[in-house]
Write a structure and sequence with these properties.
Elements (H helix, E strand, L loop, with lengths): L5 E5 L5 E6 L1 H14 L11 H12 L15
Antiparallel strand pairs: 1-2
């Protein structure tokens, strides 16, 4: 259901196959289930330094590059 924080995804046959759950909304409620299943929803698998680099790059303005200067033609 849209807006509820839970989206059920279906396969090509129409059978429910995946659920997308908004963990900001339901994380505390589902924490015991995830813990029992061996999933640590608090563990962030990202390198914070790498994430910061991406964020800085996204804020930078685009630059034009003359590809022909480097012998590249498209």
């Amino acid at each position: 259901m849209a807006g509820t924080g839970i989206i059920i995804e279906r396969d090509s046959n129409g059978a429910a196959s995946f659920a997308r759950i908004d963990l900001k909304k339901y994380g505390k409620t589902l924490a015991p289930f995830f813990k029992k299943a061996g999933v640590d929803i608090e563990d962030i698998p990202y390198n914070n330094e790498f994430v910061d680099k991406i964020r800085r790059a996204e804020k930078q303005k685009s630059k034009k590059i003359d590809l022909q200067k480097y012998g590249i033609s498209i």
